[in-house]
């Protein structure tokens, strides 16, 4: 038998072996191909959908707080103590019990807007109870109580 015929028979026999394998295992081979293609597509989609860092103009970074506001709470009176409630620079309420009069407290904020509020109630011996809210040296609210027994007074600045 010539060599080229032997080669052709060997090759066709090999093809029969490959075809036999494909006939038996075509479903598992198809699943492997589908899973590989699916994994490739998922990786590509995730890479393209990954969040990119925001584009900013040069020098437009976060700025430091500026334009601080100095808010001074004052409670005046004579003859005793008072219970005080005020808002701090974050808008959180605070209670000061039995504060000796006169009393003052200063806060500093860089928030663009906030409310300043103080309330005071004197004990039985207090007379001439008053309050004042000063923002950057300017008196924004000032009040006095005419009550003679346990006087109460409040000062409010809606927008500092």
TrEMBL record:
The keyword Transmembrane applies. GO terms for cellular component: plasma membrane. Its main location: membrane. Keywords: Cell membrane, Membrane, Transmembrane, Transmembrane helix. It is found in: Cell membrane. It holds the Pfam family Mycobact_memb. Gene3D superfamilies: MmpS1-5, C-terminal soluble domain. It comes from the Bacteria. InterPro entries: MmpS (IPR008693), MmpS_C (IPR038468). The chain crosses the membrane at residues 25-43. Belongs to the MmpS family. This is MmpS family protein. The lineage of its organism: Bacteria, Bacillati, Actinomycetota, Actinomycetes, Mycobacteriales.
């Amino acid at each position: 038998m010539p060599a080229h015929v032997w080669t052709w028979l060997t090759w066709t026999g090999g093809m029969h072996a490959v075809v036999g394998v494909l006939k038996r295992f075509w479903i598992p081979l198809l699943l492997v191909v589908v899973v590989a293609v699916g994994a490739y597509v998922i990786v590509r989609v995730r890479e393209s959908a990954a969040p990119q860092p925001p584009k900013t103009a040069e020098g437009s970074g976060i700025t430091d707080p500026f334009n601080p506001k100095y808010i001074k709470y004052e409670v005046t009176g004579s003859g005793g103590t008072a219970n005080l409630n005020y808002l701090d620079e974050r808008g959180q309420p605070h209670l000061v019990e039995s504060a000796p009069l006169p009393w003052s407290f200063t806060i500093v904020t860089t928030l663009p807007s906030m409310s300043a509020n103080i309330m005071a109630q004197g004990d039985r011996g207090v007379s001439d109870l008053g309050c004042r809210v000063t923002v950057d040296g300017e008196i924004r609210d000032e009040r006095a109580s005419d009550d003679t027994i346990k006087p109460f007074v409040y000062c409010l600045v809606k927008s500092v």
